[in-house]
Structure formats: structure tokens, C-alpha cells
Amino acid sequence: MNIANLSISEISNLYKNKELKPSEVYKEVFTNASLSESIIHAHLKLFQDEATEASKLSDERYAKGNPLSDIDGIPIAIKDNINLKNHETTCSSKMLSNYVSPYDATVITKLRNNGVVFTGKTNLDEFAMGSSTENSAFGPTKNPWNPEHVPGGSSGGSAAVVSVGSAIASLGSDTGGSIRQPASFCGVVGFKPTYGTVSRYGLVAFASSLDQIGPITNSVEDAKILYNSIKGHDPLDATSIKESTVEIPTDKNAKIGVIKELMEEGISDESKKEVEKTIKLLEENGNKVVEVSLPLTKMALSIYYLIAPAECSANLSRFDGVRYGIREAGATSYEMMENTRAEGFGEEVKKRILLGTYALSAGYYDAYYGQALKARSAITKDFENIFKEVDYLISPTTPTPAFKFGEKTENPLEMYMSDLCTIPANLAGIPAISIPTGLSKEDMPLSIQLMSPARTDSSLLEFSETIEKLLGFNQRTLLLEDMK
């Protein structure tokens, strides 16, 4: 039995029927990690002793017939910008290389209460800034489908561990596509919930008005199970919203809009064909599909790269060598802070801090940051209006399949274009999901993205399950077999 190919519900049922033990599942997952980590470097740290003990406690609960939940005993990996008590939270940065979290993030508390087994912390682009996991201070993660290709970012490690089977599921964070883009590159499902439905308390902030924690899984059903386990209002998070679910059609009555601007220049033929293939299946299923126009999506990258660096500049000002993190020596407090930030931050982070500080400066605030906020409001309004005409929006998740290492590092604009299709959902605060659909000519995963109105997360997940079944794509990486 290849446990890594089983869904959460299948594993849970095997637990309940006493056909499988959590400790057996964790043992196989750890074996997969021991085979793959030297190649793909997806986990920054594995919690072998702690996870073995947690899985044995889960064994006892199932033996007595009183598991804590349907995800009790499920091995889940955590992106290393989410705080987990008594463990390092490095954000893949030298700046936090010595930081041990004194508390659990709210999502971690929820998962602990549900009996989850944590496999370890996963690699990411430093402070979640990047699209390839090449910006990690601890070295890049490789794509399990082909180690010459990037796994995407910033949640590259979280996507890779699910793809290779060294975790059954994982948590990532999504600021401009950092869950969906790596999920697309690694051939797994990535779900970004409505902004505010999952608590950000305990997530190290990059851009506070955009960041959102979400699941990366092997199937939409698993994403739904994990999302339902971590969602909910949290008084510790000022941006958390009280849940008031909005329902939209999830059957043949659902109307789907194809975003014209995300099917034009800059999108590869392979990515377009996956959307066209899905549209055909939906029409055969009885759904109505129409082309819609959202002209402001062409401005999304420009808007994002003013707002996100500005918020990054403010959020990362706390890393000054005084309160926590590394500290470099200096003759004065100013020199100490200057040396600490010069040594602690990588090039991409420094670049975004500089951009953000410039955009927030007195002489340019209204011209840049202020205008970007107005444009963001206009994009949000455009989405609200288009959702009066259709229930869901469809597009490619990424303009191309996963690219090779070094291919885009010399051209930042080309790298930023990787998030062309995913950024609009973050700006508008709406839920969005990436679903794997097939393989490229180079046998790399391809996918489609589905979006829906704010607070319709449950409907989006249910309708995505329908699309997943219509597509019937379930090919997994052969990397583990090769390594064995």
C-alpha cells in the first residue's frame, strides 16, 4: 500500500477500522522523507522523535475508539513562517536563524487539538518573498517531478513534501500566489481561503493585508478537510472575520466566466490548453461558460509590487538586532542595526524593503502607495460586479509550467510574472484554488485556477471537487520509485 497516495479520509477510515495505525503511516512518511530530502531539500527540520511519540499517542486513542477528530494521526508539514512552540521559526532567513518560538500560531493550536502529527518545518523563499524558493538562506528546494526545475514559491517546500509523499498535507501562506503557484508547479492542490477566514495570528507577516494561511494537499477533498479544521474567527487576529458563509451553485446551474485578460499575451499555449480542456468538460457537464473581461487585472502586478513591499517595509522594521533574531556588533546602536540588517536579510528582501520604504516616503506616498490603494479598490469592485454575472472565474494558475533553476533570477520582472494569474485574488481578498490538470511536453505539472466571491469558500471547494472528477488527473511523481 502506497500510503502517500491515500486521501485523508481514506487514511482516517483505515485508522477507525483498525486496518492501519498512525505510527505506521508516520513511519512510511518519514521513510519517504529520508529518501527524498537529500535530493529536494523540502523540510528545513524534521521532528522525528516528537512525531513518533505523537503518532503513538494517536495509536492509543484509536485503539480506545476515541480519536480527537478525522485528522487525528495525519502527518502534516508546516511552512517555516508559521510559529510552532519550542521550535525554530526561521522564515528561511539568517535574520531568524536562532529564533525559537515561545507560542503556537492559532492554526497550530487548532491542529494540535485535532491530534495532527507534525512532520517538520518546510523551506520557503526568505520571509515568503519569491516565486521559486531560490531565495532561501538555507538553499533551494527542488521540484520532485524534475530536480532541475523549481518547485515554485514562496511555499515551495510545503508543495514539494506533499508531492513527494514526505507529508500527507501541509500548510503554506499565500500573499500573491504563494500557495497556488507552487502547488501548480508540483502537481498538487493549493487553496487560498477568503482573507480573514483563517487566523493569521502566529504567521510572520510579510504584507498584512494580503497574507493568508491555507492548505496544500493531494486532492480537493483533503483541502476541504484541512480548511475546515483551521478556519474560524480568532479574537487574537484583528483581521479575522466572523464566518457568515455565502452559498452559490455547485452543480450544473453554476455559471463560469473565463477571464479574457488571463488567456492572452504572456500565457503559454500549454497553460491555455488546460483551461480550454476544462471548459469543454464543464460544457459537456451542462455548465454555461462565458468569456468575461477584467481589464484592471493587467495592472495587478504593478499594484501588488507597490502595496506588498510597502507593507513588508513596515513589518520587517522590527528585525533590528535589539529584540530578537541575530545581532551583529557595531560601535553605536545605529551601526549595530545597520550591520545586523545587512547581514541578516538576503538580496530579495533588501530590494523589497527599499522599494516599500521609497513608496511610503513623504514625497511619494500619494503618488505611489496612495494610488495603488485606489487601484486595488477598483479591482475589488470589478470582481464584485463580475460575480453578479457568473458564479466562478477560471484561468491558468501560472503562465507556464515550472521553469528551470537560474532561468529567471537575472530578470526580476520575468520572475514576478510567475504570479500574474494569482495576484488578483489576493488584492480582492477572494478565495482561489489551483487544481492539477495534466502534464506539459516536458512532463511537468499543469493546472487551472478557480476563483469565487468572498466567503463562498465551501461552495468553491465543492465545485472544485466536481471539476477534479471531470478531469480525472491523478498522476503522481515517480521520484520516490527512482530513489528506491
What does this structure look like?
An eleven-stranded mixed beta sheet has the order 1-3-2-4-6-5-10-11-9-7-8, sandwiched between helices. The two termini are 15 Å apart. The chain has helices spanning 8-16, 22-40, 48-63, 106-113, 156-164, 180-186, 220-230, 269-284, 300-315, 333-344, 347-360, 366-386, 412-416, 423-428, 457-471, 479-483; strands spanning 43-46, 75-79, 117-122, 169-174, 189-192, 212-217, 255-259, 288-292, 392-396, 432-439, 445-451. Helix 9 crosses helix 11 and helix 9 (300-315) crosses helix 12. A hairpin with a 5-residue loop joins strand 10 and strand 11. The protein is α/β, with parallel strands linked by helices and 484 residues long. The protein has a single domain (3-252, 389-483), classed as Amidase signature (AS) domain (Amidase signature (AS) enzymes, Alpha-Beta Complex), CATH 3.90.1300.10. It contains 16 helices and eleven strands. The protein is 39% helix and 13% strand. The radius of gyration is 21 Å and the shape is globular.
